[in-house]
């Protein structure tokens, strides 16, 4: 098994991930229940998934590329290199994109969390340890290969959402917006142009915006629950719901008066 941390392979950081690492099928659940006197069990109010924990069993190999002669000094250099990679300039755990070899098209945003003692063996020249990483957002996101002749093919970058753009005119139009992920996503929607009022509907939810626009930009961020009109907070001008895009194809209806605009849906595919 192998991993990359912010695009750098484990062996290039001086260690290898071993088989038998600890990661669960799903994160631990956060259950909302209440015990009621005289009733067996508990009343269930629902549950959410908590953070995702990775306990990666690892071994320092003193040099992951040219296999220098093992020594306690070389081992300590590897330890410090990894510690520096996991923290920011203030020595605090930083957000890192973790990619697992067995799932190379997706990444988790993780931070170092906990403690990681090293078992130094063979005259302190080798070190065994468990690397504790936590994804406080438990979902995985897509990465996209760079298809550029000047860049090696196994490089990758973060995919900041799939974009679907349309020109809209007339009283209403139906659009198809796909979601290639396995989870429901609240998209970012960017509307540029003119309208008197605007409604966007999908999957039983409707977003209404009641301020006229003339060559203005409306940005609806469903994940952050924000609405901005030319960069200014306009949450008070909306009513209804932020729409949701389910896995697969989605029929989205855009309607209103005086519609003459472009609309872009940015859907961030997510996976468990």
Describe the fold and architecture.
The chain is mainly beta and 272 residues long. The protein has two domains: 3-157, Elongation Factor Tu (Ef-tu), domain 3, CATH 2.40.30.200; 162-271, Jelly Rolls, CATH 2.60.120.860. Helices cover 6% and strands 49% of the residues. Strands 1, 2, 3, 4, 7, 8, 9, 10, 11, 12, 13 and 25 form a twelve-stranded antiparallel beta sheet that branches. A six-stranded antiparallel beta sheet has the order 14-24-16-19-20-21, with no helix packed on it. Strand 8 and strand 9 form a beta hairpin. The longest helix has 15 residues, at 72-86. The two termini are 20 Å apart. Residues 145-159 have low confidence and may be disordered. Pfam families: Sipho_tail, SPP1_Dit. This is Phage tail family protein. Residues 25-134 form the Siphovirus-type tail component RIFT-related domain. Residues 191-265 form the Siphovirus-type tail component C-terminal domain.
Beginning-to-end CA distance, first to last residue: 20 Å
So what's the overall shape? elongated
- Shape-level CATH architecture of the largest domain: Beta Barrel
What is the strand tally?
25
How many distinct helices?
1
Low-confidence stretches: 145-159
- Roughly how much helix do the residues carry, as a percent range? under 10%
Provide the CATH top-level class of the largest domain: Mainly Beta
Number of domains: 2
Query: What kind of sheet is the major sheet?
Result: 12 strands, antiparallel
In the CATH hierarchy, the third-tier topology of the largest domain is known as Elongation Factor Tu (Ef-tu), domain 3
Strand-residue proportion: over 45%
Q: Which structural class do the helices and strands define?
A: mainly beta
Question: What multimeric state do the chains show?
Answer: single chain
On the 0 to 100 scale, the average pLDDT is: 88
């Amino acid at each position: 098994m192998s991993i990359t941390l912010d695009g750098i392979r484990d062996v290039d950081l001086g260690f290898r991930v071993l088989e038998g690492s600890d990661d669960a099928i799903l994160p631990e659940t956060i259950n909302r229940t209440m015990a009621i006197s005289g009733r067996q069990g508990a009343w269930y109010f629902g549950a959410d998934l908590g953070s995702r924990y990775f306990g990666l069993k690892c071994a320092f190999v003193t040099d992951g590329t040219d296999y220098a002669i093992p020594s306690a000094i070389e081992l300590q250099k590897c330890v410090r290199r990894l510690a520096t990679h996991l923290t920011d300039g203030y020595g605090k755990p930083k957000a890192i994109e973790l990619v697992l070899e067995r799932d190379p098209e997706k990444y988790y945003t993780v931070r170092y969390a906990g403690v990681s003692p090293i078992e130094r063996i063979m005259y302190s020249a080798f070190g065994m340890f468990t690397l504790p990483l936590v994804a406080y957002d438990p979902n995985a996101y897509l990465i996209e290969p760079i298809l550029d002749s000047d860049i090696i093919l196994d490089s990758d970058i973060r995919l900041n959402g799939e974009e679907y753009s349309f020109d809209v005119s007339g009283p209403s139009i139906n659009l198809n917006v796909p979601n290639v992920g396995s989870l429901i996503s609240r998209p970012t929607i960017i509307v540029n142009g003119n309208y008197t009022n605007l409604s966007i509907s999908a999957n039983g939810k409707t977003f209404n915006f009641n301020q006229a626009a003339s060559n203005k930009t409306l940005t609806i961020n469903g994940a952050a629950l924000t609405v901005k009109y030319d960069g200014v907070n306009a949450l008070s001008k909306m009513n209804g719901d932020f729409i949701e895009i389910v896995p697969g194809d989605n029929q989205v209806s855009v309607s209103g008066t005086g519609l003459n605009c472009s609309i872009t849906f940015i859907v961030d595919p997510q996976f468990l």
